[in-house]
Amino acid sequence: MRKRFVIKIGSNILSHELMGLDTDIIRSLAKNISKISSMGYEVVIVSSGAVAAGMKKLGLKSKPGDIILKQAAAAIGQSTLMWAYEKAFAEYEHKIAQILLTGEDFSDRKKYINSKNTIITLLSYGIIPVINENDTVTTEEIKFGDNDNLAALVAILIEAERLVILSDVDGLYEENPKVNSKTRLIPYVEEITSDIENIAGGTGSAVGTGGMYSKILAAKKAVSHGIAVSITNGRKPELLISILEGKERGTFFKPCKEKISHRKGWLAYSSRPKGAITIDAGAVKAITGMGKSLLPTGIINIEGNFEVGDSVNCLNADGKRVAKGLINYSSSDMKKIMRKKTSEIEKILGYKYSDEAIHRDNMVIL
């Protein structure tokens, strides 16, 4: 299998406020990404920019907060964005394909697999997929939040070797370089700890959604699947080649040795919970420290309406999320059997699917 390379390109790289798309930077990116493809890599691009391009056409001076106006801007700008990519890659005899995704395409297991198959098929034909969130139809319930998160999910989906997130700065700094020009770049991160997350705290740009914090959260998801992550300056596209040649530029995040399984990764990051169950201290210890399944006897409260096979969050007594899993009973039935022994399930319900409320094979500890 050829090595797979996911490149996330943000709005702040592709465009400027009130100026629309920067076609020069798009051509430069196409040139360097084409080189990567020629080096034997299968390349997938996750690109923002549709809303920013639409803002220019609509004459908007700031990114719309109203989701309906954002959808309209995306609908107008998406064709402009793809045409810019089409022209740029054609110069280097590379074909591209547009893929628009929503959160539902990841949360629904069947759609998740279908999305993967489509991308893999395109790659097998030497085509470079350009993926974006489907802003024209997305709603608050299904949106990804930002394309940093989408890029991590795509990298996990296709089992990429590396994810490169292009930023408008050189990488992760000890402080915000736009505030303190003398701050130090952090070139290497062994593990993404709470300290690293705190360093990255902040908000996005005027045309983009995610700031450095969202990039760190995306990196955290990717490295948990054994994917190496780099954050580097997108205004210097030649750095993409340097990274592949082992001349790391920006900030490198070491992938975890003990990576999460692909299925549990889907459960942790893509499946959308339909409810929550609160569990007692004994159950928390059993599932987090002893590798046990969750039994009805350890459940003390039920929230939401869910059916058999739905994803639910597992909360401790303080309301903190400790796990996520696929439930074996509906919310109405769980209310009847919570705090009960497994031997009582059939007597109470008249049937029994399983002794476990959530089997450990269908659970991920968070």
Low-confidence segments, given as residue ranges, are: 202-210
Query: Overall mean pLDDT score?
Result: 89
> Which percent bin holds the helix content?
25-40%
Termini separation (Å)?
31 Å
Query: What is the molecular shape?
Result: elongated
Largest sheet: 8 strands, mixed
How would you write the strand order of the largest sheet?
Answer: 5-6-4-1-7-9-10-8
CATH architecture of the largest domain: 3-Layer(aba) Sandwich
Quickly count the domains. Answer: 2
| Percentage of residues in DSSP E strands | 15-25%
CATH class of the largest domain: Alpha Beta
Number of helices: 14
Structural class: alpha/beta
Give Rg in angstroms.
22 Å
